[in-house]
Amino acid sequence: MKHRVTVSVVVFAVIVMALPVFAEGPNFEANDKSSTTPTKVRAIEIRKEMEARRASTTERRAEIKNNIEQRKASSTERRVEMQRSLVKRKVEHVTKVILATIERLEKIVIRIESRIAKIQERGGDTTEAEGFVAVAKGNLADARVAVEVFATLDLFDSAVAKNFETVRAAAAEAKEHIRAAHRNMMMAVRALKGPNTGVKREERATTTATSTSDSDD
């Protein structure tokens, strides 16, 4: 009997001691929940902040890229404008030089024609000289046409390089016509020295010297 009482007392004591432990159990869980919830919230906030920073960084990169592209476009536009200005100055210079040469040779042609008229008045034969003069005048006319090709060229379209090549080709053509005109003018002067022109030897020498001097101007 005493043994049963003793066992009962021990069991009762164990139960009494265990009650506070079980009572504190739910509090631990509550504390754990209360401490975990703010951490998760903070983690979410940090994640949002990082996403915002990434978005901001992406926007800045896009803005920087856009600025770089704009600077490149501006630089390209300035370069094209410089090329156009270069072509324009080149055209103006070449046009001025070639037209001045053509006008100078046309004046010499007039002098040669004046000599031809004088020889004709004396009964001399100037057929050969007249032929060379006619060809020379045609050469000079062709040279003027070549000049007009690049003098009237639109220098402000997009094909700057193509326009520059057109200027070079037309200028080369004009110079070739001028050289041909000069050769034919010299042949005309030589033809006026022929025996059938009726020009005396002394006068032929004077004519040759004067014509050569005019051609070299």
Automatic annotation (TrEMBL):
Signal peptide: 1-23
Annotated stretches, region: Disordered: 52-77, 194-217
Low complexity compositional bias, start-end: 206-217
Domain of life assignment: Bacteria
Keywords on record: Signal
Record's protein name: DUF5667 domain-containing protein
